[in-house]
Amino acid sequence: MTTLLYTADGAADDDLAEALRGCARGERAGLQRLYDRLAPKMTGVALRMLRRRDLADEVVHDTFLRIWEKADSFDAARGKPTSWAFAILRNTALNVLRGEGRMDLVADYEAIEPASEEADAETLVMALSEASALRRCLDRLEPARRRAILLAYMRGLTHGELAGRLGVPLGTAKAWIRRSLLTLRECMT
């Protein structure tokens, strides 16, 4: 049934738009149709964003609550029902990633990370030869930004995981990575 999400004829979109209109009228059957059609794909998207099943399930649940509450604001002239619903999912997941007091996003990684990432990040820099251009360029970065780059590229942490680990907002973690990469690129050329 999920293949209907991508039909060219728009029948699936019409069905979903009708389900949203049903939700706006308070019809639970409309919500059930939306859930049956969208929940599996939404769970997959949420899992890719959050990397934890329990949080993904929570975000999908919250997304359907918001869809139910805001169904009357859907306007088919402005976009497809799937785009509207997945925008709600994305925003809900991003709120969880940014969320105040939601540092538990990275709790699963504590057991596999070194006792001190600060020492580990410095050990990684020290492992580079003294003459290494990369080491010289990394040494020019502020310690917090150097740590963010090393955790992202040596440990594979996502922006959300970095934000949680470093205790900074998601936008700050993204900006640190972007600016640090630009600084490194300039330094290496």
From TrEMBL:
Keyword Nucleotide-binding: no
Biological process, per Gene Ontology: DNA-templated transcription initiation
Residues in RNA polymerase sigma factor 70 region 4 type domain copies: 133-183
GO molecular function: DNA binding; sigma factor activity
Signal peptide, first to last residue: none
Record keyword ATP-binding present: no
Pfam families named among the record's database cross-references: Sigma70_r2, Sigma70_r4_2
InterPro entries the UniProt entry points to: RNA_pol_sigma-70-like (IPR039425), RNA_pol_sigma-70_dom (IPR014284), RNA_pol_sigma70_r2 (IPR007627), RNA_pol_sigma70_r4_t2 (IPR013249), RNA_pol_sigma_r2 (IPR013325), RNA_pol_sigma_r3/r4-like (IPR013324), WH-like_DNA-bd_sf (IPR036388)
The entry's keywords: Sigma factor, Transcription, Transcription regulation
Residue ranges of every copy of the RNA polymerase sigma-70 region domain listed in the record: 34-102
Entry-linked SUPFAM superfamilies: Sigma2 domain of RNA polymerase sigma factors, Sigma3 and sigma4 domains of RNA polymerase sigma factors
Top-level lineage group: Bacteria
Family label: Belongs to the sigma-70 factor family. ECF subfamily.
PANTHER family per record: RNA POLYMERASE ECF-TYPE SIGMA FACTO (PTHR43133), RNA POLYMERASE SIGMA FACTOR SIGZ (PTHR43133:SF62)
Annotated protein name in UniProt: RNA polymerase sigma-70 factor (ECF subfamily)
